[in-house]
Amino acid sequence: MNKESVGIVETKYLQIEEPIDLDSGETIDEVTVAYETYGELNKEKSNAILICHALTGDAHAAGWHDGDKKPGWWEIVIGPGKALDTEKYFIICSNVLGGCKGTTGPSSINPKTGKEYGLDFPVITIADMVKVQKKLVEAFGIDQLVAVIGGSMGGMQVLEWMVSYPTMMKKAIPIATAAMSSPQQIAFNAVGRQSIFSDPHWKGGNYYESGVIPRNGLSLARMIAHITYLSDESMDIKFGRGLQDKDEISYDFSVDFQVESYLKHQGETFVKRFDANSYLYITKAVDLFDLSVNDSLIDGLKDVEAKVQVLSVDSDWLYPTEQSTDIVTALNANNVDVSFSEIKSNYGHDAFLLEKGQLNYLFANFLSENVVEDLMMENIATIKADADVVEAAKLMLDKHVTHIPVVTDENKLIGIVTSWDLSKSIATNSNRLTDIMTTTVKYCNAGDTIEEIARHMRKFDISCLPVVDEDMVVLGLITTDQISNLLS
User: Fold this and answer.
1) Which candidate in 53, 60, 349, 403 is catalytic?
2) Annotated catalytic, 386?
3) How many CB atoms lie within 10 A of CB 330?
4) Number of compact structural domains in the chain
5) Could you tell me the residue range of the domain that residue 383 belongs to?
6) Residue 241 labelled as part of a binding site
7) Mapping DSSP to helix (H, G, I), strand (E, B) and coil, where does residue 313 land?
8) Membrane-spanning residues where (predicted)?
9) 350 within domain boundaries
10) Catalytic residue among 5, 94, 107, 152
11) Positions of the chain with pLDDT under 50
12) In angstroms, rounded to a whole number, what is the distance separating the alpha carbons of residues 448 and 477?
């Protein structure tokens, strides 16, 4: 365990007392949510980031459970000094509704029968999952998240958060995902479900009492799905046509190739940690996901308010880049502040779990918030209201500036004079500064974010703003040129 890890962690549980109304019209009366947190929630409760896991993930995103041989599934980006810095942010990750890692799902006990739900569990949607996550966030007393971040099905949850609760996050990062499941994606999930249905041990979902799980069906479903998470290049690099534990082909139906052995191992490992019914329900939720309204993604994303960074992977053929750029296009059509980057990787879809360098770089740059204080000019020229126009003109020439705040003896802002005002004084034959200066001054504070100020300056077509404290004392100036240089 290194100093960049959050160390030993444990999964906690929230009991939601009130019923959860689902998209299907059904209701779940009691829901338990398994979750983990990393870092400390600040006094203002303003530093929280929600992480959404992928199809077969869980709440254990970082750190180590006591006795574990490997850390949480996103250890590469969560921890001290990483992009999701636990010395700065309070990170939350929960197991989704319908899961089998502590949150209520088909393997949970149905309070009405005292037995596992099985197929009595209602069909759920991504929106239902997000509704439960919102309950968890609210339980911490958090009104607004710094960001919601997730990849694959986790990215779908991020998109659903953007649409269903647009004011509850400042930023959003959907990764390697889509705003609606494509026919190909639905097809792969359908084949996986059929492999479970065809296993005689599935028994219509009622296999819990027998103690014999539909191992073969679930293993095959995982093998099929895992192929879609890789790329042709990554499989060629990792396996090629290498033989497994033999020097020559056996000419029977035993495992010959390394790639066969690998997929078999993935399937066998998966059945030890996942529930077959959960797999059915969660893949169905992914299939049902569609944020378009009247066949229009633009209409579906019209209420988004968060600043968004959409990420795709160039070698991902399960959720290809085109599906991410469709999201970007729809957000742009709604004047949402959105950026897009394509991760370069030969890992395929799994790159969002593996590309440590690119993910940390992209997340850190997007999440960092420069404030006015970081950028403003200090020790600036000011002038008193009883000065004349000639004095103001000389000061501008001497200091090579176009804006001078007008202040009181206590250096409090009462106006501003610009080079345009001086031009106006010649046309109006004005000599006194009070005749030409602007007294209804727009200003900003040192703690305002650059994003907010840039929008403000754009809205009012302002090229320079005085920076003041709570007593209106002038601290400095910030210009559009400074902001442009930062952004570039």
Assistant:
1) 349
2) no
3) 22
4) 2
5) 373-487
6) no
7) strand
8) none
9) no
10) 152
11) none
12) 13
Asked if residue 307 is part of any domain, the answer here is no
Is 316 one of the annotated active-site residues of the chain? yes
- The token pair that represents 18 in the structure block: 């009130």
Amino acid at 478: I
Residue 247: the pLDDT is: 86
Task: Look up 349 and say whether it is catalytic.
Answer: yes
Q: Which of 270, 287, 304 is the last residue of a domain?
A: 287
CA nearest neighbour of 147 among 362, 355, 329: 362
Residue 190 inside a domain? The answer is yes
What whole-number distance in Å separates Cα of residue 95 and Cα of residue 70?
Answer: 18
Per-residue pLDDT tens over the stretch 140-160: 999 999 999 999 999 999 999
**Angle separating helix axes 183-197 and 215-229, nearest 10 degrees:** 160
Half-sphere exposure of 50 (CA within 13 A, CB side): 32
- The answer to whether the CB of 18 falls within 8 A of the CB of 28 is no
Residue pointed to by tokens 């030409």: 436
* 383, part of any domain: yes
279: domain CATH number is 1.10.1740.110
CA distances, 349 to each of 147, 311, 325, 358, 422 (Å)? 22, 12, 16, 14, 60
Q: Write down the residue that tokens 């802002």 correspond to.
A: 413
Q: Indicate if the alpha-carbon torsion angle 449, 452, 455, 461 is positive or negative.
A: negative
Residue 263 in 3-state DSSP? helix
pLDDT digits (tens, 9 = 90+) for 146-202: 999 999 999 999 999 999 999 999 999 999 999 999 999 999 999 999 999 999 999
Residue 350 assigned to a binding site:
yes
Point out the catalytic residue in the list 85, 128, 316, 421. Answer: 316
Considering 237, 255, 287, which residue would you say is the last residue of a domain?
Answer: 287
